Amino acid sequence: MFRNLKPVGRILYGRNSFDQLGDILGELRIEQDSFVLFLVDKYFEGKDFLKRIPSHPQDILKMIDTIDEPKTKTVDEIVAEIKGLNKGLPVSVVGIGGGTVMDYAKAIRLMFTNEGSSVQYQGLDFIKNKGVHCTVIPTISGTGAEVSMTTVLTGPVKKLGIKGNFTAADQLVLDPELITTVPEPIRFYTAMDCYIHNIEALNGYRKSVMGDSLGTESLRIFRDIYLGSDSRSPENEEKLMIASYLGGLSLTYSEVGACHAISYGLATVTNIHHGVGNCVVFNQLEEFYPEAVKEFREMMRINNIDIPHGVTAGCTPDEIDQMIDVSLTLIFMWQHVCGPDWEKIITREKLRGLLMKM
Ligand code: ZN
Fold first, then answer.
1. 210 in a domain, yes or no?
2. How far is the CA of 57 from the centre of ligand 1 (A)?
3. What distance in angstroms lies between residue 197's CA and the mean position of ligand 1's atoms?
4. Residue 79 within a domain
5. How far, in Å, is the centroid of ligand 1 from the Cα of 355?
6. Using CA of residue 66, residue 68, residue 71, residue 76, what is the dihedral sign?
7. What is the pLDDT of residues 169-178, one digit of tens each?
């Protein structure tokens, strides 16, 4: 099937472009009581940055805990809470933070206009109605959530994205100045999500010229940052923001692969953060991406990063089986990695062996 790419509606890009957010939202505040729902990464609690958010007295600002991956339960709770205020719908849902906060913004805006629980919409093309306006503003880069048509959610049974024609945000603000204070190693782990997206997109059966072009350029920029001597220079902060954007776009015309398929399984049991989980998994995937795993280790060495070990050591055999079950449901990823006969190659025993090494 062809993919009808829906990119982000508008992109405001440049250093300190965040200061124009008030003007952008001003255009949407048509009524006197129009309000904006701001979702802000809890990392900014008590920090001066909050004073820069152009909120009006009638707006609602919620701090979002990002320890866990985004959950359907939290999406449903926030939507119910705002609807319960009888203020009407916000003129924009603004997500300021990393992949988790941006995915919350993208999901919550859809659930204002689609009945029921967000659990019903996990998967491809289940969303029927356009959501309210959505603005995403990354303050950490790598996930590609700022541009992707997917909002990844963990539900009671599935960890699966809501994906469809209405999922992409309407407005993106790319201000490299906002990502300069991200602490290590969080920055490294999140950035590596972008590297892994590119490696997976560029290697597999679903690749295409469009996906390749975007992924190749993203990877080129990424190598500049992490194989060089100073990954945190101002120029490299800006490059990382753009690498993440291009990497996210490349996935629309390709697919993620073995690392994401296993990492989703690992996360459902251990609740490990997406970026960290990906690094733990990728480090064991020489069989699938031999050159890239070598390069990944070199990037870790240059940047003094030591990833967690023994992540699955305390897991019961049942828990390992549960991880394998989740991983094997991600058929489209495995088809991209191994082709139509993937089931002959990706056996439960192979996955068990890999998981036990993590
Ligand atoms: Zn990812």
1. yes
2. 36
3. 6
4. yes
5. 18
6. negative
7. 999 999 999 9
